[in-house]
Amino acid sequence: MRNTLAGIFLLLGAVVILGDEARSETEIVPFDRKPGEGYRIDPKDQAANLAICGSRCDDQNGNRQGYVTNGGWRPIVERQGSKRIFIVNEYSYDYEHNPGASPQAQSICGSRCNILSDNLKSYLTPMGWRLIKVPGTQTRVINLEGPEIKGECLCRGDEYLVEPEYLKKGN
Amino acid sequence: MKFCSFRFNGSVDVIFILAFLVGLFPAMAMAHDATYQKSIASITIPDVVLINQTGEKIRLKTLLADPAQPVIVDFIYGTCTTICPILSAGYANLQRKLGDNSKKVRLVSITIDPENDTPKVLKEYLDRYQAKPGWDFLTGSRADINNVMKAFDAYFPDKMSHLPLNFIREPASGKWVRLYGLMSSGDFMNECQKAGIK
Amino acid sequence: MKNSLLSNKKTSAIGVVILTLLLLSSSVYAGEQPTAASSANLLRQGEKMYREGILPSGQPMQAMVSGDVPVSGTAFTCISCHLQSGLGSVEGTVVTPPTTGKILYQPKDIYKKDFEMVESVRRYSKALPMRPAYTDESLAAAISGGVDPAGRTMNRAMPVYALSDQDMAILINYLKNLSAEISPGVSEAEIRFATVITDEVSERDVAAMLAPLEYTISRKNSTAGLYKTNPRLSKMAVRMMGPDLVAKRFTLAKWRLQGPPGTWQTQLEDYYRREPVFALLGGITSGEWQPVHQFCEENHLPCLFPSTDFPVRSKSDWYTQYFSKGIYQEGEAAARYLNLQVGPAVDREIIQVVRQSPRGAALAEGFRDTWVALGHVTPVIISLQGVEPWGGESMRLALDRQKPTAILLWDDGAGALATLSMLTTETNRPRLVFTSASYLGSALNNIPEAARDFTYISYPHRLPQEDARYDTLLNPMTRGLDLSGEARTYFEQAYSVGDIMSRALVDMRGEYYRDFFLDNIGMMGDQDLPLYERLSFGPGQRYAAKGCYIVQLGQGPEPLLVKKSEWVVN
Predict the structure, then answer these.
(1) Which residues constitute the domain of residue C47?
(2) ipTM of the assembly?
(3) Region C18-30 average pLDDT
């Protein structure tokens, strides 16, 4: 009996670990559902892929439907009033497709990406917010269309879901 | 009215207290000679564009591109009072020893207070230490500076709690020697020589 | 390198003799009795050594650092680590102990009586080793040889200075007088503060500025009697603040100034004479703060973060801490942003259109100073007198003749909106037209849609949609207040004053010196508080917010602001 239990635990553990890697267990919970309620989708469904869920998770009206969880064991419900923030880790100007561009382009790229980036500290400091990292690295593309410098600018970073802490009074 | 005062219970307490003091604050103003810690790190320089003391835009990767050139990096700021003057005195001393060959070694000081440290502040700081060509002081946007700090594993969210750190890139291997602690100039010179800086 | 004279046990006696001789000699030359003036002169010389590293002879002090690196004492001044109050500092892992005579000449034990359980004091005093009291002779040995009175070598961070006996005596005399008395405004029972209010400010704005200050102070005062009603909470308060600060009451006097700024000096002196205060908190005026600033400098009175568009911009004044350089900083931000867009080396036509008013003048000055410092030519100025907005024929002529790359439109809401409307139909209009959010006021949201893509606004605060996150912190204090228009800004500023003031007082560990108050603020890390994106401090830094956004207006009737620059543009 004990061996069976141990075996089951080991198996579950393996599934947790592997599940995280292979993302075989994924669950999207639309934001108007109550916590705990949800539905499973086919793991082969592209929409469940973490890296691109950003746009695919919206319904035809552009309302955010939800996003993929981490390992599938705890659904993350996107509630009303929550928002996504993007913190840039690195930026790069596309010198490959614009070989003649000046070093100034990298600087402008930096400026634009940093403007796009939110300030993480200003979400951590005033309390009453919960931060959940969306797994994976997100990339945003900015098209530079200045009079002298054109081309694409890639901003790579992390996305977080910011939720009001409903347990806190006054919210 | 006394609030929560400790009462000395004789020698046992003294032992505890001394152990606590010695264990918890090793780097404080104690009587012994503080040693420094040395380790080897592999660092990927982020591709950011910073600004030097003359207002010129500097792409950090390009600045440090030549693998044969020895590089020393530290993190300071213009209004720093305690740790930075010692680090910078070390740099000034090294430049003095190099004499006319000061440009051989690339000394890079990066500010951790980019809000206050405009190029003008950087220039004033370098002038105070009579910096020669080869020593650049860089500032930039807060996000970029944070990224550089993180790349060196020297991230201080609060500049007031920054630590004395020097990073020497060995020309031979391209690896970075990380020196943590306030070193005597003799020790600093030793480490430079060991890293291949003559 | 040790000074061989120091092994001489008669050094302290020699020191006293030298000082006396100096006092007598200076007065003999002047032909008068040895007076306070001569000892004041000696203190001044000592202060110059301590703060600037310059000897009475005018030469820099010679110092040795890290054991063997000779440096000029001007790069390693005493003030840089021991700070202006002499009470020491904490930076990273280096704790600099106090160097005031009062503390040096007492032995240092592990425990400071009655302060054992207070975090800040415990952290600080326990870090320092026990030592017997200094004497004149052992202090001289410490300064020139790096040895403490117990015979141990001091931390490498402390340089050693080569000083003659005479100079050493002057320095030691200065240290004995440094922070020797607790500052005025502090008594056994209370700490007195005041806030300055000038009479042209509306009651709405005054109420908005006072509310957070009074809230903070009344909350603090409620801890004083806690030990009677709630011993457990009282213990927590003691742990946080120390038994001394917990027991003290704070008071906030309102110093209302009437009439023109020329009369303020006497009014301030009156108030101060009747009730000397420890520091000024906040304060509000719609014009120049300069007379109050000067009063504070002369009386060594700290003034924390007054609400004013026109702070005094000084590199060396010490006693007033400002949020920013005021509306001048918005002009500065426009210059830095424009420099980024057009590049440093290229000369472009720039026109500044300036309304004749204090705000217009400050904005124009801010822009011009920075633009020229970045290596450009002084921009052309068009001055607007009267009430007419810039437009019509004169505008068309200027645009046709100069074809400017950018226009700085430093005008109030009504005038700027009119001009921007007119510009939407001009063919020669520039790519960038800058305005100031502070000067526009509520007109900001009414910028015509057609003008929004070429209008850039300097916005000196965090964006409103992001600042909303701080509402939970501010809501308890907003009851009954009218926070329309600029009142909201004054309210959020005063909140920050209360927050920073409390932190600094807690860190002071019961040592109530005005200089130490400002030193502690200088040691604070970057703060995330309402209103300003980032407030940062540092020794000698007196303008906490260094940045200002350049934004544009989004589309629609209730537009959001869109960032076009980072908070600080370098």
Answers:
(1) 2-177
(2) 0.85
(3) 56
